[in-house]
Amino acid sequence: MSEQPIAWIPVCTAPESVTKAKIILACASTSVRNSNNDRDWNCQNWVGEALTELVKIGCLTKEERVAAIDKILEIILEAELKDDGLY
């Protein structure tokens, strides 16, 4: 990581059936798109796709994925407001 994260967002408590290795594999299986055709794709997209992979392996529910993405957007918007001096 080149920069410190804006925030750490707890998403869920993984069931015991989902090992740390499965979580790492799901995240490692999530592609990073960086070709000229993917200029509108960014790290937030990657997080959404990684969360989808975690749903597929039973680590979290679809509802938890939606809640996590909502929280990510909230934190990004708060950070942008602070940077603009509006917060």
Task: Give a structural overview.
With about 90 residues, this protein is mostly helical. The protein has a domain at about 20-30 and about 40-85. It contains 3 helices and no strands. The protein has helices spanning about 20-30, 45-55, 60-85. α1 packs across α2 and α2 (about 45-55) runs antiparallel to α3 (about 60-85). The chain is globular, with a radius of gyration of 15 Å.
Q: SSE order, as H and E?
A: HHH
Spans where pLDDT lies below 50 across 5 or more residues: none
Name the beta content range.
Answer: under 5%
Mean pLDDT: 85
Question: Topology of this structure?
Answer:
Elements: H1 20-28, H2 43-56, H3 62-83
Helix pairs in contact: 1-2, 2-3
Keywords:
87 residues, mainly alpha, 3 helices, 52% helix, globular
